[in-house]
Amino acid sequence: MTLITFLAPDTSMLDRARNLFQSQQIDIQIKKGLLSEGVAVARSLIANGTEIIITRGGTASAIRNAGLEVIIVQIPITGFDIIRTVEKAKLHGHRIGAVSFPSILQGIDCLSPILGVEICCYPIHSEAEAEEQVLQAFHDGVDVVIGGFITAKVAKNNNFPYELIDSGVEGILQAAQEAERIAQARNLEKAKTSLFRAVLDYAYEGIVSVDSECRITFFNPIAERITGIKGSKATGKKITQVWPGLNLEQVMRTEKDDLGQILNINGVDVLCNKVAIIVNNRSVGAVATFQDVTQIQKMEARVRHRFYASGHVAHLRFTNIIGSSDQLRQTVEIAKEYALTRSSILILGETGTGKEVFAQSIHNYSDRQKGPFVAINCAALPSQILESELFGYVGGAFTGANQKGKPGLFEVAHGGTIFLDEIGEMEFVTQGKLLRVLQEKKVMRLGNDSVIPVDVRIIAASNKSLKTLVSENKFRSDLYYRLNVLQLRLPPLRSRKADIKPLAQFFLKEHSGIMRRPLKLTPSAIQALTSYPWPGNIRELQNCMERVIAVHKQEEIDGTFINLLLKDQEDVPVTSSLLPDEATEISKALALTKGRYADAAKLLGISRSTLWRKLKRFNAKQN
User: Fold this and answer.
1) Which residues pair with 614 in a beta bridge?
2) From its phi and psi, is residue 548 left (phi > 0), alpha (psi between -120 and 50) or beta?
3) Is 374 within 8 Å of 413 (Cβ atoms)?
4) Where are the alpha helices (DSSP H) in 491-596?
5) What does the alpha-carbon distance between residue 136 and residue 125 come to, in Å, rounded to a whole number?
6) For residue 339, what pLDDT band results from cuts at 50, 70 and 90?
């Protein structure tokens, strides 16, 4: 709460104010002090937090003349106060001299005809003029003088008749109410100022403002950090003394904003905007905002991640890689070491060896784990579509393009990792454009000539020998060497037979929930799985376990069943011993897949055409 003090010139007014404030429940402290004495009291009050002082005439003028930083609310002299004083003065005679400050004397002579007296005004402007004016009044033949406390003091010392123009409760109450209104307005302004300062202090930008004389009025903590200048020392000084190169005075003089200027401050590049403050078509100051370019890039990355990278998340980690063979453990250790670098990685391995699993694990083990993980299969899309997906396009860049345009996957992956699977299938022309992105770290959308900086780690993968493709002129050598900074070779499943059993058991457990049937591999089944070469590697093993779950009836799975299942389904017809009740199994599969034949065929481990043939045969039997 803003502290208000009532400064009474004498004891009688002090008592009057105290009784009034108590009866009206007004929370204002009261002190005594007259004129120069009042200035000393006011100075002490201000030091202890007083912001508004209520006082009258001469004391108010003395405090103002002393230049104290405080709001003065002057107790008004009401018509009632003047009338009461004149009525008392008439007892001494009808020629009255009014000796006081102009604020009290204003309009007092109008009362002469009303009250039947002659009133002559003798204005004073300071305490020192009071005695001269009182003497002049009596020299002019007045019968009595009226005025404030200083007039009464002089008249009393000279044995002249006088009456004090005292302040009644009406004027005191009016001043107190005005002081409280000012205090309330100041508190609201303080709240707004505090909020405004908090916003500026915790803004991302450094902010410096100057007034019409180019003196610094605000210097926030970010400005301190970037410039190395203490705001407390800079405030109040000319901007040319503190930061001459900022040229804020030119912006204020020309009233022209200077936006997007790049400055180097203490070795840090900052983006600076300078704006003139215009009030009533006149420049009254200027403000400069500046931000570390690195921080802008970080915020841009967060924005890109939020708006573009939704769903581009790596869910797998090295702990998800199943197996304990020496080959696998060694590969995982190498991958972890690679993850801690920022170099491009080329993953080589046969189909189904888990290249994307390793790519996701590397991403989640790196310092980019909070960024997006964007994966694309380069073999799945035609060249033009692949380019638009990778680099993005502007609206109308080609027939059928989205009119709003679309960000490319490199933009989406900013701050994270992009996984380019089957990179060996990328066409030669697209390879050249990819190489440029890797070299420049900038991407250009199709149909546009502006470049967008990107910070992306590349992980590429191929099931073919890129070196062989280079020798056959099917893959660019410069792109190959750009990608092949760190090479990770994934061993095929047949070379790490110790991992087949845990993988098979994992897939059985993971997918058995579909049929709600506990299954167990016998030693002969493990032997059959281990003996198989697995040309499709882990993916083929996973598919095999899904077929086992779909068609096997007993809890234990033996080697004979596995051997039969591993044969070509089209070449080896399914016998009644394998599926005792094919119609029931097919019905279950169709029910589980809600009538989708392709999904039912996959669940049963047969082709869609085989499923159609079986359904046709069953229908013929029923007819």
Assistant:
1) none
2) alpha
3) yes
4) 500-511, 523-531, 537-551, 559-566, 582-592
5) 15
6) very high
Q: Which two tokens stand for residue 428?
A: 């030669």
How many CB atoms are closer than 10 A to CB 497?
A: 14
Alpha helices in 148-235 (DSSP H): 149-157, 169-201, 221-227, 231-234
Cα distance between residue 84 and residue 375, in whole Å:
95
One-letter amino acid of 384: Q
Burial class (CB in 10 A: 0-12, 13-18, 19+), 43: middle
Give me the amino acid identity at 191. Answer: A
Considering only CA atoms, which of 288, 267, 299, 294 is closest in space to residue 206?
288
Helix (H) or strand (E) holding 357: helix 355-365
Chain centre to alpha carbon of residue 569: 58
Are 142 and 121 a contacting pair, CB within 8 Å? Answer: no
Cβ(345)–Cβ(488) below 8 Å: yes
Joined together, the tokens standing for residue 226 give 């970037």
Burial of 91 (C-beta count, 10 Å sphere; 0-12/13-18/19+): exposed
- pLDDT, tens digit, for every residue of 267-303? 777 888 888 888 888 888 888 888 777 666 666 656 5
Confidence of residue 149 (pLDDT cuts 50, 70, 90): confident
Is this structure's pTM higher than 0.85? no
User: How far from the centroid of its chain's Cα atoms is residue 390's Cα?
Assistant: 29
| Most confident listed range (144-148, 329-333, 575-579) | 329-333
